[in-house]
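Repro case for the chain-ordering regression, as requested:
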Amino acid sequence: MVVDADHVVTELYAISNVPTVVLINEDDTIAMPNWSAYGSDLFSEFTGVESDRQHDRIRRWVREGDAGMSTSEAIGVVGDLSSEEEAARLHFRLALALRNRGDQAGCDRNFDRAAALAPEDWTIRRAMMPLRGQDPFGENFMALYEDWKAKGSPYHGVRGY
Amino acid sequence: MRADYGPRMANDTALLDSFGTISEAQLAELGWTLKPEGLCQDDTCVLVPDRGALISDVGLDLAVLGDLLDRPVAVDTEAGLAAIGAPRATRRRALDDLVAPDFTLPDLVGGGVTSLSDHRSKKRLLIAFSSW
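-- result from build under test --
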């Protein structure tokens, strides 16, 4: 298990929410790009996803090499980050660095900028909540959730598999 | 001036002290050198069509540098700190060609690091999650 404090992987793979799962073949090719998949049904009321079906899909990929998505289907199925979403990741990184330096005003300034640039990106908006002393399951989270839902639940990846 | 955590971070991204320009020494710390043929790293050179836009009396313009290298750049001019993102081509290869980008990150325990490529030739289930 590794820690990605700077959210580098979200930049490299265009990840905008968690959990996001990527199935990677032995030859470094992506068998299933960013996939909204779950370890249990704990949040199935929210997500509408049955995790058992997803686990079966993963088992089939491991045993038979079939991830359930053809290469032609997988290519381009994840939309690229916009320039704003890219910039938000950098401002998130700047905020963390300034926080570590003890520059709280600089930290807040960059978190605000990141949130404004990527308002529906959970790896930005929700991730900064605990770092700003906010409850990631509290009022701010519910406001984000309602806003995100009203905007069509944007996600850089595959859902419903 | 070098940032206390160093200008280069893993995974081809960087944080560095800058108000919007960098010195040639900082450029070298990022792994690039300005040569007559362009911006060069190892055997690869990127053409610089307008050197006047890149170079001024105060250094190399980071925004122009970012455009030339196809990397996002963000500068906090109040703090004098800049962030340079990974090459966009790396992500495009993931999305369009299905080539999984490698990365190296610190382990949660033990003080070591792990790279995706440490497990090459095996199937890998990459799960991005947060403890919130």
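Ordering looks correct now. Chain A has two domains: 8-74, 83-150.
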